Amino acid sequence: MFRIGEFSKLARVSVKTLRYYSDIGLLPPVQIDPWTGYRLYTTSQLSDLQRILALRQAGLSIDEIVQLGSGRDQTSLLARRREELVAKHADLTLQLSRLDHYIEVLSEGAMKYHITIKKIPAMTVFSARKVIPDFAALNTVFCEVGAQIRSDNPQLHCPDPGYCFAAFHDLEFTEQNIDIEICQEVDRAGNAGVGYVFKDLPATTVASTVHVGSFDAVGTAYTALYEWIEANGHHPSGSIRESYIDGPWNKDDEADYVTEIQVPLVDSPDRPS
To answer: Which residues face 69 on adjacent strands?
Structure first.
């Protein structure tokens, strides 16, 4: 038999680690000398130690290895750990893809648009779908619809800060006769009126970027956003949303307008970015 120091050299594992494994019952010594208190090990325990080290290198925690030793089904535990590692690998792969795209864009000059994936929660909105002559009419239509709904449903309230957006339903970009859906989050459904309804929107995962400046220059944000989506292997799904945070209703200078562009995604996992 070997004292713990000798067994440590033989196994090439620190004494501190062996003592820890002993204290938690994972690899107790075969004998403790009653006179000296020395922990004594045998060469047959090298195989047990090797198993512990192999499982640790495979990514299992000490608690999981203890569970395996206590009779828990090994196949299910190892399969679960494998699923966790696969998910972690997917996360790291996605982060690398985003970082590579970031580096590529930065190499071409200053990066104006920063893209993230976020989850928009489920909510109730009023919805008014209209065809407007051009983008200049958007603010007027928003105000008209809002005034009509407030008149019809004075009991309704919009959360503060609220979520107000236009969803674009045209199959391709157009500057005239634009098919839009105006939506505003409300605290509950009201009574539908002429030209608008109330509906519940499900939670939606989107790729998002923020445009600061005139509405006329928002096209550059779209270009950056769709390049990022393609570079990172995502797929758009559903109508584009423009969420209007600051605009002519509260800013005098177009340079201070703030618009968030949101593109719903079909394949984005629900994970932090």
So the answer is: none
HSE (CB half, 13 Å, CA atoms) of 268? 26
Angstrom distance (rounded) from CA 104 to CA 124: 40
Distance CA 243, CA 261 (A): 6
CB distance 247 to 257 below 8 Å: yes
H helices of 70-218, in order, are 74-107, 138-152
Residues 6+ apart with CB under 8 A from 44: none
The one-character DSSP state at 217 is G
Whether the full predicted model's pTM is greater than 0.70, yes or no, is no
Please write the tens of the pLDDT for every residue from 82-102: 888 888 888 888 788 778 777
CB count, 10 Å around CB of 83?
10
**Whole-angstrom Cα distance, residue 55 to residue 128?**
59
Name the one residue in this structure whose structure tokens are 């699923």.
83
Give the residues across from 209 on adjacent strands: 261
End-to-end CA distance of the chain: 53
Query: Are 118 and 260 within 8 A, CB to CB?
Result: no
Q: Two tokens at 15?
A: 């004494």
**CB-based contacts of 144, cutoff 8 Å, min separation 6:** none
